[in-house]
Amino acid sequence: MSINRIRSNNTPRRRIPGFRKRVVRGCRQRVRGYRPGMESVRAVLIDIDGVLTVSWEPLPGSVEALREIREAGFGVALVTNTTSRTRASIAGTLREAGFAVDAEDILTAPVATAAYLAEHFPGARCVLLNSGDIREDLEGVTLLAPDDTKSVPDVVIVGGAGPEFDYAALNRAFGYLQRGARLVAVHRNLYWRTDAGLQLDSGAFLVGLEQAARAEAEVTGKPSAAFFEAALARLGVGAGEALMVGDDIESDVLAAQRAGITGVLVKTGKYLPETHRDATGTPDHVIESFADLPALLRGSAVQELG
Fold this sequence. Notes:
Elements: E1 43-46, E2 53-54, E3 57-58, H1 62-71, E4 75-80, H2 87-96, E5 106-108, H3 109-120, E6 125-129, E7 142-143, E8 155-158, H4 167-178, E9 182-185, E10 191-194, E11 197-200, H5 202-213, E12 218-219, H6 225-235, E13 242-246, H7 249-258, E14 262-266, H8 273-277, E15 285-287, H9 293-298
Parallel strand pairs: 1-4, 1-13, 4-5, 6-7, 6-8, 8-9, 9-12, 13-14, 14-15
Antiparallel strand pairs: 2-3, 10-11
């Protein structure tokens, strides 16, 4: 049984350059039988890692669920803090896994970072600490060469963690901050899940840099409100017409709820019972996995979990 198709309206929001707007197009009339609170939903924002995939392998039922949501006429934006790949690379990998997506469906934190720097630090010289080549998504950003140890950057960009986050690199970033560079973080995730289990992410290192340099990072990806606003702008919907699905209760779900978006927590990926219990708020909805989302939207029988 497919989700009943819905109709949409357009609400202009902030836009990020290079992230093309795709307004949700017209469908048939609103149908009865929606779960309470879902009548106004026109678009779905979806985290990738831990929700659709783990280590880029699709989670059970996720390909089919995304297809059903699209066929029902919901607008879809994949919103991710992933910093190991570009949008184009992510889209190609997801297509190989069976997901019908392209690069324009994806908003990455690096793309949002480029927009933030263009607005707040135009022309700034930046140094990037990141695991993975994301220069393609940092359009317009002036990056100093990795071997340039003499120039002092205007901005230190902290991306995703990996082997590059060794003592020398972190100490060099600390030195730049002491000399006046601004600190911009693509995200502040503490960890993420792979097929080998939970892995430490850059948020753990970011806290140390902030404390040591007495600097507060400007965060451009989730949980930044501007990141969610950009996704809404791309879909042409208001916050009250969107739903955010994520496995990170703080950065995905509660951050979206603070922006006025309905939050759905999935118990896959980095989800842990203790982080759920100790969270700063309560998700609007909790489901076992993304495969359960079509039923939640339909108002069909689906077990909501505490």
